[in-house]
């Protein structure tokens, strides 16, 4: 079971890294999404995969039963999902704004940061 | 300190910036009010951090369990000398930036949300310095990341959007690696509290998952801190931001990565064991060398300084590579010196831009005659960065290089000396081009630099001079800080001896 999960996570991370290496902005974004969800699954597996009861304290009891799942990995994953969602949403907005002002999502067309104060700026040499 | 505030000292360096951010956001339509609230908040944060440092000086390590949960279960906050010093120095820098902002910020930038984002960044930075929980550290990293992305794109120019994409993608990748490392570590040890990890890990058998986790930590913090093969996002984005944002980033952000690296590799993993030392040494050497080479070709002040951040990170990593208490003390001294000096240089770059209208050194010039005070104020941090005695950089470099010769790493020490020479080259380039040579423009029009810009530059310069002429207190402080840092037993004892809060039984 663990092995199947591990291979599934590996495949997803592979896809994520492949997309991250792309030149297309939206693919990079999707690559990040795949990588961060694969990481959530990784925490899930690292927390231990077993068939157990949900971590809920029964009525009238004061503590969890013995055969219940560990609640902490679930809490970690929930936190990571929320944070990851917010950052990906911001990155998507950033990509959209860039597309509107540069007119392209291909990173090969995003040269403005490199051109700003470039040491190879011919314009500056002529002025001087 | 009043009685009812006792025991809450770890809370205020976080709560004050958070409250200020809320006030600034509520006063969105009133830039003046935001500015005033921000300054008040920054002063209060500085006071709170000084109080914290005072308490840490007398009690060595201060801990706090939020919600009253006993240590391994709840989230602990821990301040030892190193983290308290980092909080103090970042509050000093933030206050300097807040004063600089009075003169430099345009109304449009305030409208774009500079003040709430800046305070949000300080929340993230202080949280990262004070937390004692590895997953909580991840959360603070993300708080910092989202605030920095907002700050980089303050003007929404094409260059800034482009820089922000590079910054966002590589830093998101870094936090994903960080989270993976945490997941694997949790799988092996079953705990996330740093003190508990420090207690459990020495008794844990080495496994593939642990090694991979350590390497992932090194990579994740390496991207954040700007190590040699991983630094490319930094010079691609820092120069696009408005200068005050660049100054704060240059001073604080990479240092948070370095701080996290120091914490993890003193408390959880040993540099001396498991072959981490050669990797860190290689990273340190590459970081020093390639940072300074990258700077040599540049003509834009901001780009020169961005590359120098990387080069200086190499010196700090040198301390971790050698990992003797002497070297760690040198690294602590170096970080404190570097935060002050590097941010100050960016402020001077802002002043150069204000005076000459350009960041490009080929177009600037004539500042020596028109504003000699600025020339002097530039020389202090510039010479300090290069390590000329008797400024603070000399003592910082002396400590790490001395430690490297004593610690059988003479080649690293020699390399550090060569890099120091090349730093002089870059600094004298800025000096000659911006200050000495006559302005290349036909009509030399030099604007006056406002007082609100000169005050923070002068104040940070004074700190540099004070450390330089009287290094002994800080050296002693760094030595004790390094001793505390390299001895996990003290850290563990401090966290687990925390008395339960009355009335709360988890």
Automatic annotation (TrEMBL), chain A:
Sequence intervals crossing the membrane: 6-21, 28-51, 71-96
Membrane topology, as annotated: Multi-pass membrane protein
InterPro entries: CPA3_antiporter_subunitC, NUOK/Mnh_C1-like
Superkingdom, natural source: Bacteria
Any one cellular-component term (Gene Ontology): plasma membrane
Pfam families named among the record's database cross-references: Oxidored_q2
Protein keywords: Cell membrane, Membrane, Transmembrane, Transmembrane helix
Claim: Flavoprotein is one of the keywords in the record: no
Record localization: Cell membrane
Family in the record: Belongs to the CPA3 antiporters (TC 2.A.63) subunit C family.
Protein name, per record: Cation:proton antiporter
From TrEMBL, chain B:
Subcellular localization, as worded in the UniProt entry: Cell membrane; Membrane
Topology with respect to the bilayer: Multi-pass membrane protein
GO biological process: ATP synthesis coupled electron transport
Organism superkingdom: Bacteria
Transmembrane segments annotated in the record for this chain: 12-30, 37-57, 82-102, 114-131, 137-155, 167-188, 208-234, 241-269, 275-297, 304-326, 332-352, 373-391, 411-436, 448-469
Pfam families reported in the protein's UniProt record: Proton_antipo_M (PF00361)
UniProt keyword list: Cell membrane, Membrane, Transmembrane, Transmembrane helix
Ranges where the NADH:quinone oxidoreductase/Mrp antiporter transmembrane domain occurs: 133-422
A GO cellular component annotation in the UniProt record: plasma membrane
Stored InterPro entries: CPA3_Na-H_Antiporter_D, NADH_UbQ_OxRdtase, ND/Mrp_TM
GO terms, molecular function: NADH dehydrogenase (ubiquinone) activity
Family the entry assigns: Belongs to the CPA3 antiporters (TC 2.A.63) subunit D family.
Name of the protein described by the UniProt record: Na+/H+ antiporter subunit D
Species whose genome carries this gene: Aquibium carbonis
């Amino acid at each position: 079971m663990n092995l199947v999960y591990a291979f599934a996570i590996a495949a997803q991370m592979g896809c994520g890294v492949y997309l991250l290496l792309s030149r297309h902005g939206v693919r990079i974004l999707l690559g990040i999404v795949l990588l961060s969800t694969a990481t959530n699954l990784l925490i899930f597996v690292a927390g231990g995969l077993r068939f157990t009861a949900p971590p809920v304290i029964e009525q009238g009891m004061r503590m969890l039963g013995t055969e219940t799942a560990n609640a902490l990995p679930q809490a970690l994953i929930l936190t990571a999902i929320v944070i990851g969602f917010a950052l990906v949403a911001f990155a998507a907005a950033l990509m959209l704004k860039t597309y509107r002002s540069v007119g392209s999502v291909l990173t090969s067309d995003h040269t403005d940061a490199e051109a700003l104060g470039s040491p190879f700026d011919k314009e500056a040499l002529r002025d001087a | 300190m009043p009685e009812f505030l006792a025991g809450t000292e770890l809370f205020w360096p976080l709560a004050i910036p958070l409250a200020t951010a809320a006030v600034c956001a509520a006063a969105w339509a009133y830039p003046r009010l935001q500015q005033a609230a921000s300054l008040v908040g920054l002063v209060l944060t500085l006071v709170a951090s000084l109080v914290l440092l005072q308490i840490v000086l007398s009690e060595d390590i201060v801990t706090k369990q939020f919600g009253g949960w006993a240590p391994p279960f709840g989230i602990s906050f821990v301040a030892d000398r190193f983290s308290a010093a980092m909080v103090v120095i970042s509050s000093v820098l933030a206050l300097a930036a807040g004063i600089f902002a009075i003169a430099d910020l345009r109304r449009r930038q305030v409208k774009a949300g500079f003040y709430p984002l800046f305070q949000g960044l300080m929340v993230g930075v202080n949280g990262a310095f004070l937390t004692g929980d590895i997953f909580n550290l991840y959360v603070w990293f993300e708080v910092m990341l989202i605030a920095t992305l907002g700050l980089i794109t303050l003007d929404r120019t094409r260059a800034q959007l482009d820089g922000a994409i590079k910054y966002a993608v590589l830093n998101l990748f870094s936090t994903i690696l960080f989270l993976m490392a945490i997941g694997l570590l949790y799988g092996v040890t079953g705990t996330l509290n740093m003190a508990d990890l420090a207690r459990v890990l020495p008794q844990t058998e080495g496994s593939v998952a642990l090694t991979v986790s350590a390497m992932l930590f090194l990579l994740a913090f390496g991207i954040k801190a700007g190590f040699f093969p991983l630094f490319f996002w930094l010079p691609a984005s820092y120069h696009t931001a408005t200068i005050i944002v660049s100054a704060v980033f240059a001073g604080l952000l990479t240092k948070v990565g370095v701080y996290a690296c120091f914490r993890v590799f003193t408390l959880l993993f040993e540099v001396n064991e498991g072959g981490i030392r050669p990797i860190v040494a290689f990273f340190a050497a590459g970081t020093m060398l390639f940072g300074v080479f990258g700077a040599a070709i540049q003509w834009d002040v901001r780009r020169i300084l961005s590359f120098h951040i990387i080069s200086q990170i190499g010196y700090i990593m040198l301390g971790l590579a050698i990992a003797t208490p002497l070297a760690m003390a040198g690294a602590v001294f170096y970080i404190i010196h570097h935060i002050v000096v590097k941010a100050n240089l960016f402020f001077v770059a802002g002043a150069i831009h204000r005076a000459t209208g350009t960041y490009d050194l080929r177009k600037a010039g004539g500042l020596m005659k028109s504003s000699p005070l600025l020339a002097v104020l530039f020389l202090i941090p510039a010479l300090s960065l290069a390590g000329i005695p008797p400024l603070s950089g000399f003592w910082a470099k002396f400590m790490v290089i001395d430690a490297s010769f004593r610690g059988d790493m003479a080649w690293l020490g020699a390399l550090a000396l060569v890099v120091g020479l090349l730093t002089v080259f870059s600094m004298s380039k800025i000096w000659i081009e911006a200050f000495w040579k006559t302005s290349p423009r036909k009509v030399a029009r030099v604007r006056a630099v406002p007082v609100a810009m000169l005050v923070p530059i002068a104040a940070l310069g004074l700190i540099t001079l004070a450390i330089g002429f009287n290094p002994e207190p800080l050296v002693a402080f760094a030595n004790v800080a390094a001793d505390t840092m390299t001895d996990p037993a003290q850290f563990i004892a401090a966290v687990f001896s925390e008395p339960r809060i009355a009335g709360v039984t988890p």
